Protein 1
Amino acid sequence: MSGIETVKVIVDAEKQAAKMIDDAMTESAAIRKRIDSLVQQQRQQMLAEAKKQADDITARASAEGRVEAEQFEKEAAQALQSLIARASTRKNATVEKLLSLVTRVE
Amino acid sequence: MAETDKFTEDILRSAREKAETIIREAQTETQHASDEAKASITHESEAVVRNAHADADAIKRRQISEARHRTKLREQQEKDKIVEEILDQVRKRTSQLAADEARYTPMLTHLIESGIQELGEKTVMIHVNKADLERMSSLTQKVGKSLGSVRVEWSKEPIQAMGGAIVSSVDGRIRIDNTLDQKFEALEPKLLIEARASLFSE
């Protein structure tokens, strides 16, 4: 092999080596890009699931709260009716009592 | 020849190793980044759910609190309505007192006499409503028995009142308002308290 041929073989090898590294760089960039995209996708999916779970939790709480509030108001309305009924039976006595205060001679 | 082959082989092996390192590093790095991202997303998702639980508690508390408030307001309105009705009845009964002469006359006499005593003047003017003015003569006999030397004059102008009297100095500068209206008004805060206690206590 002549000197020129030797140099040519070495230059070819260098070119091949440079290509190998270049390809590796390209692949590593592709790997990074893939993972970025995958992470982004995963993020959106997990957050969407969490958001749905959150919506379910608040919707359930709202429904439960409404039921509890209705029950509370129902019981309170019954208690108020009893209170009004009891007050009605005391009206005459109360009028007399207040009238005695107004007419009391000191 | 052999040396050249060895040399080129070295170049290629070195390049292969470097390429493998580049890819391995990229894989390690991305795996690490992926793990970190996953942990971060998990944390973020957990926070979303945790916040939802807190929101849920707040929603329930608010709904119950609003219900309590509505209930309290309704109860208050109903009680106020009943108390107002009672006060109206008492006011009406007070205005009808004058019809019960046996009960009213001693009371009117007392209101006039206490007014005279409170005023502390030697001559006083008594102001009463139209109905009482019409029976002034019988009142005149009753009033003043215990007043000693106080001279009592009766105003001929009737006042607008349910009953009772205004006792004033002759020039009208000092007035003691002993009308039933004034008494009712002065007692109203107490009447409200008494009415509530009487109607709504356990």
Protein 2
Amino acid sequence: MNRKWAFAGEVLFSCLILACGIVALTGSVQLGVGSLSQPGTGLFPFFAGLMIIIAASMAIVNSITGKASESEFILKKNGFGTLAGIIVVFAGWILAMPALGYVVVTFTAVLALAKLLSLEGWLKPLGLSAATSLATYILFDRLLYLDLPRGLLG
Amino acid sequence: MDATDQLLQGFLNLLTVKNLLACFIGSLVGTIVGVLPGVGPAATMTFMLPFTVGMGPETGLIMLTGVWFGSQYGGSTTSILVNIPGEAASVISCIDGYQMTKKGRGGAALAMAAIGSFVAGTIGIVGLQFCAPFLGAAALSFGPAEYLTFMLLAFILLLGMAGESPVKGMVMFGLGFWISAIGLSPMDGVARFSLGSEGLISGIEFVPLAVGLFGVTEILVVSIQTYVPPIMAKVRLRDLYPNRDEARRSVAPALRGSVTGFFMGLLPGPCTILSTFLSYSLEKKISKTPERFGTGMIEGVVGPESANNSAVMGSMIPLLALGIPFAAPSAIMLAGLRMHNVLPGPLLFTDSPQVFWTFIAAMYLANLILLLLNLPFVGLFARIAMTRPAVLMPFVSVVCLVGTYSMRNSFFDVWVMIVSGVVGLLFRRWEFPVAPLIIAVVLGPMLEVNLSKTLVMFDGSLLPVFGRPLAAVFLAASVMVVGAMAWRAARARAKRRSA
């Protein structure tokens, strides 16, 4: 990522946080701040929102007047693709779980993650998927008695 | 019952197969995960929190204690052998530790670091055992005003230690307080910022948030980066024996590190990290050959490694006596305690002494287990650090997903975890420190309750706070710290201008 993008990204991210502060502040006012002797439900989040707004504004000024934060990441080729893929797998794990059950969904998710992270061949990813899904099933469901979803297949 | 009897009772509580196994597994898993570069104690503890849910308070806490200690021990292995710190508190060990490895003395460095950590851990536990109940008794006189001003002082100190950007630390505190305010108000039960969502009405749970910010962020960071396989030096059992000179030179640094670390642990902020830097500079300053530091001096490894272990014990004192965590791992420990309905604070020592003393006994045992584990199996642990992300990360991802789900059998929590992980990645990229946010989320409700009570008690004015001696001292200290921070910032600005 070049410096111009790094700078724009940092300012944009700080602006996003500033927006969160504004949401917190306006939401608190709607809830009712009350008075100092009779604090309302919104007083504490009001202070939190105020703190975010002040600090985020200062962070924006610092970003504009100072230098952009150096990236500690050495992104690999198609790093953003991998990132998007992982998030999709995580979301898919949640969405498919009620229908397909823990073992099937976890097996598929681990296989997808292993391939996304470039684990070569098919034998190793399949072995890893089987071992992970079974080991975590035994650990959580059988040993720790946590009720994992069975899915429509029972 | 006096302290010795209670400690003995604590050991008796610990001596069940279930508890001993929990202590062993916690220490082992903590070391294994702690060895992985970049994964520090906070991340390791969040990975393990969900596992402790079904174990009951004592066993769950024993396991968490083992995990915390284990991850602290594990961090040094890769620092010394590969020059990659397992966690931030082991950065300093890279300097002389890796140089010793290059000279073929890596085994001795690891062994002395483990022994130093054991000594420091033991000294720290003794300190904790005596200081925490004493401070707890003193804290019984704390009212809302004292708690409020003490928390204010702690937050200001934390901001002062937020590294290069206290402003970003302040942003994170604000965000943390806001997140803690989501859900039902602790004062009147009104739903806040819930957007009509059932999940948000009960508030954002700490565990999904912490697993996201530490665990998922780490998974994403590792997955999108180019993987460079480390070159690891082999360590055999016989390499672990230090020679007589190395053993002799390690004694004093271990003791000095134990003392400095313990007192550093009492301060808010990243005490384990700061204690290692302090210990290293102290060792260098009092050495007759300071110029040799950085070339493989055992004092530069043993001192800091002892200091960071002792700092963990010191940081337990405010956590257990006041219920106020000063660093991210303590905040996660507090969440673990609350999850098991154990409320740390002054009443812990009178209401649930068995929990406190079993906890202390577990610390002694975990410390011993770690010494026994770390010496013979250090080569094995080091090899774990070589595991490729393509193998490790899918497994860790599943542990995060299923662990978070199993807390309340809630997919909403898993969504919270994923979103926190992605936001955590952005925080990491733009250097917003996560620890203040975590601490603020944990302390937010306590701060809100004490703020409201103080305001109502003093009819909306904070001036009567000065009439309460302890609260006035905390306020005065806060003002002094803010003054010192402003003076330091002005001096740095003037220096930059003149340069």
Protein 3
Amino acid sequence: MNENFDAAADAALFARLRSVWEERDPVPADLIDRMVAAVAVADLSREYALLTLVETADLAAVRGEHDTLTLQFSDGKTSVLLHVSETEAGARRIDGWVDGEALAVRLVQGEREWSADAGETGRFAFDSVPAGLSRLRLAVREDDGLREFETTQFEV
Amino acid sequence: MGLMTDTDRSDPLDATPDDPGAAVEHAEPTRWERAADLFGQWREGRTRAMDELVRLMSPVLWHVVRAYGLDRALAEDVVQTTWLTLVRRHETILDPKAVSGWLTTCARREAWRVGKLQRRADPTEVEHLEPHLPIQESAEDSAVDGDQTSRLWSAVATLDERCRRLLRVVAFEERPDYARLAQDLSMPIGSIGPTRQRCLAKVRAVLESAGGER
């Protein structure tokens, strides 16, 4: 290995290179918050605030052949609304809305998980997931930081 | 600094060889030491320590991943994949002190994999356009540092891709995994050090010819 005879000068140049890259190709705004949120909904060692089912409406009778289900979860303050429909391939599409800024949303079925992007509008969607017992985990931005939620299990 | 995990050494994720050239400040805990401490706390049940670890290491992962020429959206995906992999596979890190090297190696490995797919799928090579994006800086900064920064940035732009990648990875990783780097760059491990010096010399030469600065 090449012996470094002028390590201090190299270190100084590396420090300057670092600041150039930091300035010219900065970490995207909010990247860190999004990463914290993504980890928060994947990290099962956490305690999640529980969102329980407060309302369910099965619109099959109204809509005809395709089953369409609406579920609402809440802890009294934060609410999540899910609209479940059947895709042509027989899978499920879930359109969701949360009354807050969700930075990460994750759908869990046993060992399988899917993540969805959610923006400031609070809308998110899972285009195609299998039918089955599911749970939703969310990380929502609140005044004093991030809060993680988990719904009770529901069938899609 | 002989920090090795004692897991299967064929897995590059678990190898964290010492970096012979990294400049490390000793006045306060180094980043990898803080990362190790936070990871240890998280494993002991302080769940919020993970948030701090993510805040500490995400900027490093960003720059390491971007060194592979991924566009910004893909780079963010790779950083996220790296974190989810940590949460899922953290048991494989037997020594918490290895977490920093594990993360950057995982990010580089994933960036390498995704980068190959991107180049295959997208021949327009988005990354070549991005250096010309508007510079983000405040008015006060630009008056003082703009000139120096511009010159250094121009010098970096004259480097070949291999040099740029190597310098950026080494600049942001405190203890780069030279074995994996050598593999990524199709170089013998023994030539990483000399190549690094050659790339630095090139930057210096361009700076000097541009205005007597070293």
Protein 4
Amino acid sequence: MLDLTRKIRNVVSRGRGGKGRRVQKGLLEGVKRGETVLEMKGITKRFPGVIANDHIDFDIKAGEIHAILGENGAGKTTLMNVLYGLYQPDEGEIRVRGKKVTLESPKDAIDLGIGMVHQHFMIVPSLTVTENIVLGLKSSREPLLDMDRAERKIVELSKKYGLKVDPKAKIWQLSVGEQQRVEIIKALYRHAQILVLDEPTSVLTPPEVKEFMRVLKRMARDGLAIIPFITHKLPEVMAVSNRVTVLRAGKVVARLKTKRTKERDLVKKMVGREVLFRVKKHRVEKGKMALEVKRLRALSDRGLPALKDVSFSVREGEILGIAGVAGNGQRELEEVITGLRKATKGKVIIRGKDMTNRAPKEFIDWGVGHIPEDRLERGLVMDFSVAENLVLETHSKQPFIHKWFLPFEKRRWFLNYDEIKKHAKKLIKDYDVITPSVDIPTRHLSGGNLQRLILARELSRKPKVLIAAQPTRGLDVSSARFIREKLFEQVKEGTAILLVSEDLDETMMMSDRIAVMYEGEVVGLMPAARAKREEIGLMMAGVKRMSKKAS
Amino acid sequence: MRIFEKRILWEIAILVLLVFGALAVGGLIIYIGTGVGPLTAYGWLVKGAFGNANAVSETLVHACPILFIALGFVIAGRCNLWNIGGDGQLLMGGLGAFLAGYYLPLPAPLLLVAVLASAFAFGAVWGVIAGFLKAKLKVNEIVTTIMLNFIAFFIIDWLVLNPMRGPMEIVGAQSMSDLLPQSAWLPRLIGGYRLHVGIFVAIAVAILAYILLWRTPFGYRVRAIGYSPKAAEYSGMNITRNLMLVMVLAGGISALAGAAEVSGIHHALRSDIAARGGYASVSYMATGIIAGMLGRLHPLGVIPSSIFFGALISGGDVMRYLGGIPYTAVFVLQGLVFVFIVAGEILIRMKVRR
């Protein structure tokens, strides 16, 4: 639906502002290093009720890496869409090599030489690398494809920049890092001179990030202009960028040479106030065994073994972090220990009770809270109101039921919306959820607020065991911090937390112990105090494993 | 809250506009086909639908089964199930109503309750077959409900031609069963007119359905499952059980249309009670589903939309008598309304700007 409205908007604006002026192809050919290739001046974009971009200036030279930094909602996505021709700015202009251009669609951007690597890759899993790269392009042998030639060119490009990838491999066979390389090659294949990267490192393992940084440097040295857009994951980008532009609330708040800044200052500028980068961890007395998983096995959606003899345990007041690259069984694990997926073998014991393969409701009633990885599909009913979403599990319990039929205590006939709303109003206050009202559909809320909503609901049930999967993924710094603090508070009250996170920094900072998952197995389990980043990185990549008895 | 009221007004305005658009195109088709000017034709239509007491009575008589079927469609639709089994459920409901009315030795008021309850039960069984197949075996409910329509039709057809064949024959039409005893007839409201209490039962059911969906924990779960089955599963709802319950309700409510036809109009069981005017493909079900869509899948919204289609049917009769406009024009109009509201979805969903 959104896409459709956007398309319509595009068509409308095309009719209005286009005047038939086509973008000049090859405007960026023969650029020399150090020449300013792109300027954005006074870019302003308004949406009903908000100014997403407020007079933003930006420029980049060939051979430069100029990062754009900002929290969720700072206006990064809008700016990116303006740059890629998806939105037309209300004010301001875009100049390429000094010439004013109008980008009416992504096609214009591509024709000009602006390439985009999206956070969620736009590639077809069942096709090969080469097929994906030539997708939508005219072949030299129309109407036939010329795969050999395409392949040769791909190999050439990948050698030139060190983007190792097998052109004949199918996408689904590739790791996330390799898929990203395919996206980059795809842009280069279309003669991109300006490369826009959306959250490029958020999906990569530490070794992959290092490799990626090398590639970026090489491309910049070769004269490409590279614009990474970043919410979090500052350190890596700090390491390679020449300049950083920081956005906050739609405005440019700082433009700095990277060499002369510190990470802390950047975060301060981004958030607008001093935010402790590290949440203080308190020592908590560990209590009784809360969650125990014994030689657990389960299948993935495709029916392949996803968990292979996974065993671990979490005590009351303890956080066990599960580190690992996405797709190594974490999702299946999360689902098995909340009743959403059947275990084929093994045991799940929660607070002394065998809960293996029970229904989700029994887990909920037995004090298991769950912050699901898939927030939008699993965690919330997006078409329900905020108030309705806050009672998903508890809607048929007191006080949310009218007591009109008191003689029939068990008859839960009518919802008490006054109580449901009261409950919601209290929670959105306690958890700083920003929403105009508790009656609006949840889908109108932003990412950080959605996650606060889920957290509020799950913690309001006072769980004894909490499964938190990717609790801060994609969130801005202050929301992420808020959520981590709340989790710590919970641990202090004796809750056992299983933290599944792809963000290794987060896992290391928050956990008491860390388990590393690789291909459905726990390949390492160690106290966080003794954990080394590089070592965990190697385990995540499957290079190294610990002997099983080490915990 | 104000924004929601605006939203609703906007939706209604757009829907009215779309209906007028459909009528405009329909008028053009009628003009091309018969040479009768659209305004003249629609004049007859309005007269036939609301022009006198009998016209209003006929409008409501037709609106009644449409409303029941629309409600059966809406309740399932709120759980994201497409109940295209209105015909079959109506027929089974007719059978249930007839059996109860014919065989149960009860006094009149109790007997009528039994007639409705029996119709509901028969339809519920018919609906839950599809519900069971969907919930347990993930068989697409659209396919099963449609297929069950045929099964129901041939069961009833066989019954009225063989074991339940009555003494009377309708000239040029199918057989029908014996007549129901008078105590099993739904009371008619005004002497001489066909209007019976069914329409009020239907409106009451619509209000109950609204309360059920928006004021009870069960309705809450139904809507949660409809919007997002994964989130519903996550929050501990029993999806299998709720899907089946929804189909019980949907089938049962659609089946009340059968009770209305058998016990309110024909006073006997016939196999053509679902089809109108001998057009098997254009049945109360087809109209009911379009009414459900026009009513924005809302139990209260389908009340006016069902009355609209009831008016179209009774007015269509008059168009035929007075202007020789074939009755099929009504089906054309119905189809156009459907096309317009489906295509107009984008307008309905457009953002309300201040």
